[in-house]
Design goal:
Length: 78
């Protein structure tokens, strides 16, 4: 009725999570001052572009009450 599970032929795969290497990766190279300045400049450019598009787009998103009054008077036949 119950079968025994077959042994895994690659038992070392089951133990892979316990394996720790004694070889350390090489240390990361530090970014130069020019690279850091370039990253800041790129970030500031992106933020300035987003803020600028928001500032320029706000008038288009706002509703103008004077235009609505003109339209409603024209539709009444005045």
């Amino acid at each position: 009725m119950f079968r025994r599970r077959e042994p895994v032929p690659f038992a070392f795969l089951a133990e892979a999570d316990r394996f720790r290497s004694n070889v350390a990766p090489p240390p990361r190279e530090r970014a130069s001052a020019g690279q850091i300045a370039g990253r800041w400049l790129l970030g500031l450019t992106i933020v300035a572009g987003l803020v600028g598009s928001l500032v320029l787009g706000m008038p288009a998103l706002s509703t103008d009450t004077a235009t609505q009054n003109q339209q409603s008077q024209a539709s009444q036949g005045r």
